[in-house]
Write a structure and sequence with these properties.
- It contains five helices and no strands.
- It is mainly alpha-helical and 74 residues long.
């Protein structure tokens, strides 16, 4: 997922992010506010040893959303 894709999906993504990865606080989400670089920084701070796992999860989440959205289009 690139930074433009991240920003475009932020509102949907942040709810799932907090449910799946509970160490992200409301303050974290307000600071990130769709900025991929800030997300990776917060991810490193909250989940240093699991950073790759969180990143993979984010990419998979985006792919799932993208696939679901494209199925409805002809």
């Amino acid at each position: 997922m690139n930074s433009d894709q991240f920003k475009g999906q932020w509102k949907q993504f942040k709810g799932e992010l907090k449910r799946q990865w509970g160490k992200f606080t409301d303050d974290d989400l307000m600071k990130i506010e769709g900025d991929y670089d800030k997300f990776t920084g917060a991810m490193q701070e909250r989940y240093g040893d699991k950073k790759d796992e969180v990143s993979r999860w984010a990419d998979q989440w985006y792919e799932k959303q993208h696939a679901a959205g494209s199925q409805g289009k002809i």
